[in-house]
Every structure is written in structure tokens, then in C-alpha cells.
Amino acid sequence: MPTKPGSESIRIRNLSRVLALLHRRGPLPRAELTRLTGFNRSTVGALTTELARLGLAYETEAPAAGRAGRPSPLVHPNERVAVLAVHPDVDAVTVGLVGLGGKVHRRVRCNAASPSVPETVNITKTVVGSMASALAAMDRVVGIGAAVPGLVDSSDGSVRLAPHLGWKNEPLAAALSSALSLPAWAGNDATLGTLAESTFGAGIGQDNVVYLNGSASGIGGGAVVGGIPLSGADGFAGELGHTLVRTGGLPCHCGRRGCLETEVNLAGLLEVLGLQTADLDQLEAAMRTQESPGLRETAGRQLDLLGEAVVNFVNIFNPRTVLLGGFLGVLWAFDPQRLQNIVAQGAISGLGGSVDIRRAALGADLLLVGAAELAFAPLLARPAPSVPGLAETR
């Protein structure tokens, strides 16, 4: 029987809708998928069966809910369909293996001082080579996503400018794709962190959120206003680290003085702790166990200046929630009430008193999960069988 015109595109669109729900919300009963999509039960059954055939989902028996009758099957995203995620920064290159549903199977951090693009690619290849057993456990690896602390052209994944890394007009996505024989994408790390927290973390279900991420290379961020992520005319919105917080302060690479990311920085915390480098867990442990007058002074000053910036963001965006990721989350945890008080007292018209300031939920996995979303996007938009190559690991 011939296919009706347009029926194939409708089928793909419906598959996409169901897979996206599973990816972003986790396992769902068929009955809940029916409610969320508005499709009838037979359509949902056909779609989940096809997603299972494509290796993108699987079903288990739902736990008994105390009601008579057969429970609705529980449909899961196949977490063994995965992508490689890469985050280069001035002190390390972190590589992860992330499955559908945002599940991080592996995360490997390799110390590296301001790695170049070739060094980033070589480190990624080496780490991927060491992940042989984890890759063998996957059903499919569909691509690579990279989160970069800089301005990235989303059309081709080239890095226009990453000043802390010394990169300018570097074809990062193309280099990763060539080295690993997988399609690759790249984006700004703070923008991807905002996406990850909004999809899988503390920003789920919130329509008005400001997100700030602090890393060794500086501070970036993003804002979701009325449920819409603000991207800007060229996709470069979110350079919140260049908000002025101290007139005549430290010089910034952008040419100004007193920017948030020059006054509030990881290097200052590491110095007072006597550390050269540290991941987030190590930083938090050190700040918790090595409390000293010097640490209290440095952390307090940074919290005060961070508060000045957050007051500005509250006045501009009127968020319900401010999420702090990276070392900013660790800094907040050192004295959460101090920051909350600054914002409550400083924002206009009492706006700061109703703002919930909290730590991003995804921790060290945040930017890997965000980077993975770039590589999952084509699959979610058009579920389809995999291509040969590294994409088929078994």
C-alpha cells in the first residue's frame, strides 16, 4: 500500500516528540506519554515500539500502583545510546561519555595548561582510547559535543575567540570530527550549562532563571526569560562575566577594569588554599577543611562582588531563580546567607527578597551534559538508525 503524502514526515515528527520527552524527563509510563503528547494509546504504543526497534528506547514493567488492572509499561530512553562530550579549559581537558537521558557513564579530567586545539584533540583521542570497555558497553555513539569558554560559531562549530585559551578562528568541531570519525558540534560553555541545568538540573520547570558558571577561564552565563533562552542577534548573549563590579578594579582581557570574572576567580581561591589546581570536589573539600582568616577574607570579598553582579542581573532579568555552577557553586556553599542578604538588600523594589539563589544541581557533570545536547539534537529531531564506524561499537 503506497505511503500517503506527508505521512513519513508526520511519523518522524511524532517519534521525535516521544523520544525528546523520554530524553528530557526520564522513564515515563505509556499512559503519561499519551497524556503529554495528546496521541491516542495505540499511536503511543506504535511509536514506543518503533523507538525500541531503532534501539532508542526500551520498556519495563511499571511498579504496581495499588490499582486494579494491568499497569502501563514504563518506557525508558536507551542510556546506552551515547555521545562523547569535551570541555577544554585553561587548566584541563575533560572528556565524558554521556547517554540519552543525560546519564554520564564516564568522566575523565586531564590536566593541561591552556591546551591548543591540536592538544585538545589529541587528549580527547587518548581518553577515548582508554574508554574501550565503556564504549563496548554502548549500543551506539552518535557524535561529539564540545563546550568551549569562548565565542563559538554555531553554524560550523568553529571558535571565533576563546581569549583565555588563546584560540582565534579555530575549527574545533571539524578537527574533532576528523580525528574520531564522528559528526561534531561546539558551543559556548555557559550557554550549554544553562541548557543542561534547565533540562536536567535545578532549572527544570522554571521559566525565569539566571545561570552563572565559574571555571578556571572565567565566568559566563545565560538567562531564560519567560521560558525563552536569550541568545542575542549573533548567538553570543550571556557574557555576564564582563559585568562591572568594581570601578577601577583589576584589568580584564576585554580591555576594561573591574569585570566580574577578574574580581571573582578560581585562581584567587586556589592561591589562598595553597593549591595549584583542583577539580570542584577537591576545591570544596579544601574550603571546608582549611578554613583560615585568609580564606574567609578572600571568599568574603568574592561573595560581596558576586552579590553586586547578581543584584544587576536581578534588576535586569527579574528571575525567580539564580543558579550558580562551577566554582561559584562552591563559593556560594562557603557562606550562602551572605550572598542572599546582599541580593535581598540591593535589588530594586524588593525584587531580591523573592529570588531563590542556589547551586546548580549537575555539579562536575554540568558542561559535559550541556555539550552532549549539541550532539543529541540531530538524533532527537530525526530518530534514525546509526551510521557505520565508531558510531557502532558492537
Molecular structure report:
With about 400 residues, this protein is an alpha/beta fold. Helices cover about 40% and strands about 20% of the residues. It has helices spanning about 5-25, 30-35, 40-55, 115-130, 130-135, 170-180, 190-200, 260-265, 265-275, 280-290, 295-315, 325-335, 335-345, 365-380, and strands at about 30, 55-60, 75, 80-90, 90-100, 105-110, 140-150, 150-155, 160, 165-170, 185-190, 210-215, 220-225, 230, 320-325, 355-360. A hairpin with a 2-residue loop joins β13 and β14 (about 230). α1 (about 5-25) crosses α3, α2 (about 30-35) packs across α3 (about 40-55) and α9 packs antiparallel against α11 (about 295-315). The chain is globular. About 45% of the residues are buried.
Give the tally of structural domains.
3
Q: Could you spell the SSE succession in H and E letters?
A: HEHHEEEEEHHEEEEHEHEEEHHHHEHHEH
Helix content: 40-55%
Widest sheet, order of strands = 6-5-4-7-11
